[in-house]
Write a structure and sequence with these properties.
Rossmann fold, five-stranded parallel sheet, flat
Length: 459
């Protein structure tokens, strides 16, 4: 270990930056965020730096007396001789010094910082590869929510109360683990601190039963794992049991916590492993057993995903739940297929419909669908495609209206079959697209031909 990682308090401390350019301005911003009193000395200082609040500037070449009273020094000039001089004089006075991009002259390294105040994470490569350190920070950005600092403050406020109420260190640790990785934490992160404290007080009253069940209704998006939200990924990593549908892709399921129990409930056409009512009851039972239940659904749970029915049951049973939106297939699949859902020249509105209703029919509002300058997106419509196209033509859409089928959109198996209302049923019969599919009808489908050469995601 070439450098000892430490966190240094600089509040109201005088810190010097030698240099007046863009690099110096970035370093000044970090010091200001830490509460330091920043002094900048250089023969020339950029206006944005010179006029920034909280910075005292001196237009001058660096001299030894500029170090008087300083707690920390950063050399960020473009002149290596000056930087070396700053380093030597600062070291002689035992003042910590950092020379930008010159580790040999540094007594400390400026890390890449992930700020979730009061939580702080710092990354350093010891000066060998600052870019790599920043890349690692970016990876953790996706795993640590921005409001985790709020959770730390919440815990700090309750520490003394916990010490007083729970004397056993082991029980205290278990309580904190359940608090910081459970329902209370989720309420804090969601902004419901009053609800979090109420639940926490209940946990304190019964420290033998600190686990509380909860259901996370999470939209997994259309298939590409890169389209998951940060919040969805976080809940996927903490669930005890996962209840998932056929539309959840294998790469996404592999991102769930490894030791979580997995329960497949199907939901293929005419092949439901569990009826919806039994899925609702299953979620309730698992939550009442004290488990954190991830209900993972393809797309968005509230767009033809029957998520509303599931949370109705949970609410009736008093089960805590969260709903995490997902990118619905209409927007995700259309985007990857190179078909904008709206476009000034082709469509000023967009409508989503499902290709089959509860009784298996396709009794849609055809007059509302068959309107010009409108995009129609049909979920689960492949089985009834001939009827769909015929009805739209009967109600006024021209037979040559562009239309497309997108198979397994956003995944490596994506295929797009383009045609018209008149030709698409025969194309489907010949090509035999594999579910899940999405049908898009409207003038926007023609834009795919223009975008294919420029849009790398299009398949």
């Amino acid at each position: 270990m070439d450098f000892l990682p430490i966190f240094l308090s600089l509040k109201d401390k005088h810190c010097l930056i030698v240099g007046g350019g863009a690099v110096a301005a970035r370093k000044a911003g970090v010091l200001l965020d830490a509460g330091a009193r920043v002094h900048v000395v250089a023969p020339e200082i950029e206006p944005a730096l010179a006029t920034r609040s909280g910075i005292e500037t001196v237009i001058s070449r660096f001299e030894a007396h500029h170090l008087d009273g300083m707690t920390l020094v950063i050399a960020a000039s473009s002149d290596r001789a000056t930087n070396r001089q700053v380093s030597e004089l600062a070291r002689a006075r035992n003042i910590p010094v950092n020379v930008v991009d010159d580790p040999a002259l540094c007594s400390f390294i400026m890390p890449a910082i992930l700020d979730r105040s009061p939580l702080m994470v710092a990354f350093s490569s010891g000066g060998t590869s600052p870019v790599l350190a920043r890349m690692l920070r970016a990876k953790l950005e996706t795993l640590i929510p921005h409001n985790y600092g709020r959770l730390a403050i919440f815990a700090e406020r309750l520490r003394e109360q916990v010490k007083t109420h729970v004397s056993d260190p082991v029980q205290r640790r278990i309580l904190w683990e359940d608090t910081l990785d459970g329902v209370v934490a989720e309420k804090v992160l969601a902004g419901d601190e009053d609800g979090a404290e109420t639940l926490f007080q209940q946990m304190l009253e019964d420290t033998d039963s600190v686990s509380h069940g909860e259901v996370y209704l999470v939209g997994a998006g259309p298939g590409d794992p890169d389209l998951l939200t940060f919040r969805a990924l976080r809940l996927m990593q903490k669930a005890d049991v996962v209840v998932y549908d056929n539309l959840v892709s294998k790469p996404i399921l592999e991102m769930v916590r490894r030791d979580a129990q997995r329960i497949y409930v199907g939901k293929k056409r005419d092949d439901h492993t569990l009826p919806q009512e039994q899925i609702n009851d299953l979620l309730v039972r698992l939550a009442k057993e004290g488990k954190r239940v991830l209900r993972l659904k393809g797309g968005d749970p509230f767009i033809f995903g029957r998520g509303g029915e599931e949370i109705e049951t949970l609410a009736q049973e008093g089960i805590p739940f969260q709903v995490v939106p997902g990118i619905t297939a209409a927007s995700g699949v259309a985007s990857y297929a190179g078909i904008p859902l709206t476009h000034r020249d082709h469509a000023q509105s967009c409508i989503f419909v499902t290709g089959h209703l509860k009784d298996g029919s396709m009794d849609l509002d055809w007059d509302a669908l068959a309107r010009p300058k409108q995009t129609i997106v049909v979920y689960m419509g492949l089985h009834g495609l001939p009827l769909l196209c015929a009805r739209l033509i009967e109600h006024g859409l021209p037979a040559n209206t562009p239309a497309a089928i997108v198979q397994q959109g956003t995944t490596p198996q994506q295929r797009v079959f383009s045609g018209t209302l008149a030709s698409l049923p025969q194309i489907a019969a010949d090509e035999k697209p594999q579910a899940p599919t999405l049908i898009i009808v409207g003038g926007v489908v023609t834009l795919r031909e223009k975008l294919t050469w420029f849009y790398p995601q299009i398949g």
